Amino acid sequence: MNHPCFESASRALRACIITPRGVQPSAAQNDRKEDSRRLASFLAKRHLRVCPELLPSVERATLTACRNLGLERHLVHAYVSPEVGRNAQCLVGQDKPVLIFGSELVTLLNEAELTSVVGHELGHFLLPELNVRSEDESIDSKILSRYGELTMDRVGLVACRDRMAALGAELKIHSGLGAPHLRIDISAAQHETREILSADGDRSQWRAAASSSHPPMPLRIRALEQFALSDAYLGLTGGAGGTKIAQINHYIQEELEGSIDHHSHDALKRHVLMFKAWLFCLCRIEGRPVELHLLNAAGPPTDHIQLDQAWSSLQHFASDEKRRHATLRLRNSLEKALEASPALTNSTVKRIKDSDVFVNNLLTSIFQDE
């Protein structure tokens, strides 16, 4: 960020950040090397630049968001495109924010609602440590991305300072409907959200959401409503009091963990546990059974039942085939574990290797053979 107002806004908005429990946002990478003027020149040839003469309501929304976030409007490039639909984008990697709003989105939202979307997209520029690269399909990244979107929703609320508008934007974007078909009734939306989230305690309905980079609408509404009551939001918008943001974050983390993230965590654990099981089998084939406490030095804990099941599955193979099959399965399980959660997998493998020289040599020899 090469302008003081970006740095100042970024520092203030850190109060909005929410991450998975136990995860701290990493330091932002200084990868904004591109001169935004070149991209702006290119986009102006394909899209309509936001200016007061041609797009007065979009200009006012952008100006309001900039003012409320402490930014100078002339530093923000903004365009409207028919190609983006009812979505918006912040093109990261530039030295200044470059925003694109879908024409369908502009038609759907009123000015205050659009202001919240402008703020959301500016948040991606101002808090780059929460952005997840689009090519990263790991389960870890999906979890972090969902929390990142909740953070950007909070920035959107700070930008528009209108709870009704921020929640209205969520409802309209989710449904694709505006007036007269959709009535923005926040009390009704809250009731509907409570009904969905408490549906007989059945959380299996959220399994599909575990593969998405965005949290579902009911959770976004709940999270935004809670943030609007926080001391962080009131402090950023000139108010006082409110519920401690740490308490709000704890509540939202529990909600996400109980509904969506536990499905993700189950998948993470499954791959790592399979790696442990096949490592156990290989060590046993080599005549050096590995102790359970060593396997459980890091990562999700396994037990003798899981290990014995893996060992039993090898018993129909001939002796000379057992090692080859176990090695293949270990490689496959480790590959899947790394795809799902590089951080958890690498820390688990390193801890196990560091705990036993034989295991370290065995794993080293296996992966040198590839």
If you had to describe this structure to a student in words, what would you say it looks like?
Helix 11 packs across helix 13. The model has no long low-confidence stretch (mean pLDDT 88). With 370 residues, this protein is mainly α. The protein has a 4-stranded mixed β-sheet, with helices on both faces. 60% of the residues lie in helices and 4% in strands. It has 16 helices and 4 strands. It is elongated, with a radius of gyration of 25 Å. It has 2 domains: 4-243, no CATH class; 265-368.
Q: What is the fold's blueprint, element by element?
A:
Layout: H1 4-13, H2 36-46, E1 48-49, H3 56-69, E2 77-81, E3 88-90, E4 98-102, H4 103-108, H5 111-126, H6 139-160, H7 163-175, H8 186-197, H9 217-227, H10 231-236, H11 245-285, H12 292-295, H13 304-312, H14 319-340, H15 342-355, H16 357-368
Helix pairs in contact: 3-5, 3-6, 5-6, 5-7, 6-9, 7-9, 8-9, 9-11, 11-13, 11-14, 14-15, 15-16
What characterizes the major β-sheet? 4 strands, mixed
Q: Please give the alpha-carbon distance between the first and last residues.
A: 43 Å
The residue ranges in which pLDDT falls below 50 over 5 or more consecutive positions are none
Query: How many domain units?
Result: 2
Question: Strand pairing plus helix content: what structural class?
Answer: mainly alpha
The number of distinct β-strands equals 4
Task: Kindly report the oligomeric state of this protein.
Answer: single chain
Name the beta content range. under 5%
Proportion of residues in helical segments: 55-70%
Main sheet strand line-up: 1-2-4-3
Overall shape: elongated
